[in-house]
Amino acid sequence: MRIFATLSLSGALAFCLVSSSNAILPKQSSATSTRTLLTAYAAPTEFSGPFKKYYQTANPPSVLPRPAVINAVSGGLFANKYFPDELANPTVLPTLPPAGDAVLPKASATARPPASYAEGVQANISSIIAGSDTDCNKCIASVKLGQALARADPASAPVVMQNLCRLYKYKTNPTVDVACNRTYAAETLGGTSTQVLSYADFTSPNSTDAQYICANVLGKCPLPAPRELTEDFLNNWFGGRRQPRAGLPNVAFKSGSPQLPIIGGILNALFPKQENRLLRVLHFSDIHVDPRFLIGSEAACTSGQCCRADSFNTTVAPNAVTLLGTGPSYPAKLDSSNISATAAYWGNRKCDAPWSLVVAALESVNKINNGPVDMALYTGDMVTHDANWHLSRDLTYYTQQALFDAMRYFFGPTTPVYAAIGNHDSSPSDTASPHSLPDGRGEQFSWDWDNNARLWQAEGWLNPLEARQAAAHYAGYSVSPRHGLRVITVNTDFWYRGNIFTNINTTNPDNSGMLRFLTDELQKAEDNKERVWIVGHVLTGWDGSNGLDNPTNLFYQIVDRFSPRTIAGIFFGHTHEDQFYVFYANNGTSRATVNAVANAFMGPSITPGSSINPSLRFYDVDPETYSVLDVHQYYTQLQDVQPAPGEGPTFQHLYSARAAYSNFSASVAKGTYTGPVQLSGEGNATWPVDAPLNATFWSALTDEMEARPELVQTFTFYQGRNSSHSPACTSAECVGAKICYMRSGSGPLGKQCTQGFGSVQG
Q1: What pLDDT is stored for residue 77 in this prediction?
Q2: For residue 242, is it left (φ>0), alpha (ψ between -120 and 50) or beta?
Q3: Mean pLDDT, the chain cut into blocks of 10 residues (762 residues total)
Q4: Spans of biased composition, class Polar residues (predicted)?
Q5: Cβ(295)–Cβ(495) below 8 Å
Q6: Model confidence, pTM
């Protein structure tokens, strides 16, 4: 391995909050710099990790490892045994999850109707589709018929979905029959869709469930208008405490030793208070390890998951389905003449991460940091992107066990990892049901919450009480790792547009109770004079395409209520890109910098995803206020070149946010800098060295971008981490759209921006 020169860091910083306004003003501190970061680190070629056994050992660059992972979940077929090789073998791709994974609603009728009933429903839906009404009206009429079937005969509903899919060719890859039968089986989307049809409200006068289903799932209706959160609603939500109680200090100046669970007493003795050293925090996200990654397969497929035994590009392999078959066994690869781009050992730009890349990234963290980081935030998505018929509970168990064990192995026992669950970390993907569902269906994903809670406790990151809290709150929990700091992790699937269960009780902005949990924990933190980091997966804002309007609007009000005193940071993932956005007072009615109260960071991914480079992020954090003082982005160039023979990926420093964005000279010259922070340096146009990179900083950056549009292209370059495949953002339309996204912390605000410029992937 090669170790490169170190990167100088700025001195330690601190600040105080001014209670009379939203402003954050700088205050000098005697804190010193934390460990020095390397400018670059080349990971070794050799594969290492926590795995004691392999079904196949690594032999770069031609053979990927297949680690054997013990299933520590009690009960089940593989309990306390190694998961079988077939579970993650690249030449064996399941055609469906096990039948036991299927969950259907209970029938409301005492007797099952005759088979002709389902046939009649299907015929009536076909008749509606053939009619002359609007697509939206046809869709709403059809889902109401579907509800009648789902309630009377749940087992027949997936069959009708499969039939309609084949009839209208809604799914085509690898063939219409295969795709429709597998996509809408009871074990996959057929079961979850039947539940939503059964439990949705299509009859109440003000219900919007049918319209949401037809908008979010079927794309046939416009979205309903967001619910207005009235003053009465918000007063009730916050228990009459719309403002912080009088007498609170400007900031919680508590600091000190880590409070690691399980072994906290021992570690506190070993690591006494460190008030004068900056904290180093890792933010990493969206690993999406693909244990079925197959070297030599098609890396530029035209549909489905690439770098797989069943991947193909129709341009060069029009007869691929005939050559490969449709599984589950794929003993032969396509000939090289039928492959447009070849899957390689370290990964490819349209594929998820092979084990080689994942281990190289995790192994690089402590090397780059010259020692363990103080803590790590993982913002979700471990499981590979895949068709639901290739997924299963066991694959989820396997992935979570393997990756959390790997994190503990590489980061060490002194680094707690605070992880959020992602939308892909379940089976079927993108699903999480609220506890309020009847007939016990609200607990159908408890296997997932319980497993995460068990693992977090086993790795030493949560104590038993915190683990029980995580199991009870959809893998959400509240923990204090250091004096004065509280980390609140939430399951963001309940505001994710792709979660089909969010189409039930859609007028309720908190159908799951997740935001109630967050609010209550924030109130406790405020009362205890703690600062809070909120950790989740799916972002609430940016361009408005991911988060649902009603819950993200409520989240915005929660952030407004508890910022800037209590909330010190908000951390998401999901988009795979380097992004941020700002929250403003009074629901963003005036998105002027003087009104900025909080900001959210989206952590870039480790998976190459769609034409972006794998990435790691390090924060310098004030040890008293827990504000972010600098952002250091690292990446490895995987989009255009593979590492040289005998070398692993090199993770190199891409930028420091303070160095890249602290020059506000254009907005100062134009008279549009309105931040409450007094700038310094030449021309009084530089962000002070003793001020945090808080909401004021990031909002002022958007003002600078308006005055200096080329700065948006710099941001875009970082967004995809120096990927040659990222589209440029130089037009006035693109520049304006991205600045608008940066000022949008909720779905409704993001949707007000010009669409089409939110992502650099393609």
Answers
A1: 65
A2: alpha
A3: 47 34 40 81 91 95 95 74 95 96 92 92 98 98 98 98 98 95 98 98 97 98 97 97 72 46 45 68 99 97 93 95 94 92 95 98 98 98 97 97 98 98 98 97 97 97 98 99 98 98 98 99 98 99 97 99 98 98 94 97 95 97 98 92 87 98 97 95 93 98 98 97 94 99 98 97 85
A4: 424-434
A5: no
A6: 0.93
Indicate the DSSP class of residue 101. Answer: G
CA distance 695 to 677: 11
Cα–Cα distance list, 66 to 294, 310, 354, 390 (Å): 11, 19, 10, 18
- Tallying the residues shown for the chain, one arrives at 762
| Contacts of 227 by beta carbon, 8 Å cutoff, 6+ apart | 507, 509, 549, 550, 553
Picking from 332, 408, 419, the residue whose alpha carbon sits closest to that of residue 382 is 419
DSSP 3-state assignment of 732? helix
pLDDT at residue 7, as a whole number = 54
Helix extents (H) in 610-682: 657-661, 665-670
The residues spanned by each domain of the chain are: 2-41+243-249+278-289+352-751, 100-217, 298-343
Contact present, 456 and 433 (Cβ < 8 Å): no
Q: Please list the residues that pair with 284 across neighbouring strands.
A: 378
List Cα–Cα distances, 724 to 167, 346, 472, 577, 604, in angstroms: 41, 18, 44, 14, 16
Fold of 2-41+243-249+278-289+352-751: Purple Acid Phosphatase; chain A, domain 2 (3.60.21)
Strand 40-42 to strand 2-3: parallel, antiparallel, or no bridges (unpaired)?
antiparallel
**Cβ–Cβ < 8 Å for 532, 518:** no
